[in-house]
Amino acid sequence: NAGVTQTPKFRVLKTGQSMTLLCAQDMNHEYMYWYRQDPGMGLRLIHYSVGEGTTAKGEVPDGYNVSRLKKQNFLLGLESAAPSQTSVYFCASSYSSGGVRSYNEQFFGPGTRLTVL
Amino acid sequence: EDQVTQSPEALRLQEGESSSLNCSYTVSGLRGLFWYRQDPGKGPEFLFTLYSAGEEKEKERLKATLTKKESFLHITAPKPEDSATYLCAVLHASGGSYIPTFGRGTSLIVHP
Fold first, then answer.
1. β-pairing verdict for A107-108 and A87-94
2. Which end of chain B is more exposed for a tag (fewer CB within 10 A), N or C?
3. Each residue's pLDDT expressed in tens, for chain B with a length of 112 residues
4. Which of A43, A59, A103 sits opposite B98 (nearest CB)?
5. Nearest CB to A42: which of B49, B87, B97?
């Protein structure tokens, strides 16, 4: 199993350009998440999905859009990149096994380092 | 407002010098508290899950405990390879779903 993979690993954009980050998982997990990590700020949730065809906003959703057309993929889009979106982006997936103690740990990808000039 | 606070922000230890990291939280509808380890340039890796006050988990030199308001990650006789950033995350109710909120992490350096 590859686990959680992210494409690309690095990217440099100019202000106003658009791009899509791809996250793929081969563990058949229901839940998928996109985070950004900035120095001193920890991981902040951008958007998440609780199943195929569903998405929801997290803590910092402005300037980003997401789609989950297939269970194994979760795409993060930047329509018009801004320097404030320079960050390291992590994707994660997790699953629920049912019951009170049903929510399980997240599996993280290796990250995408994005610089917006 | 749901909050997760980790302390200290940074910790330097000598090899063999035991210590504890703290994660305090103010959230509603707690479903679980997770500890992760993150090495530079990599994604976080799972360490422990705690679901209810009084629960404890151990793995090698690490032991995690949970009360109603905070969690501790105890590191006993640390080694240089334990150097990393340690993150805690609280899974809690929000808008009909359960979402994780992360603390800012504790950067641990263990000197030989």
1. antiparallel
2. N
3. 669 999 999 999 999 999 999 999 998 788 899 999 999 999 999 999 999 999 999 999 999 999 989 999 999 999 999 999 999 999 988 877 888 999 999 999 999 9
4. A103
5. B87
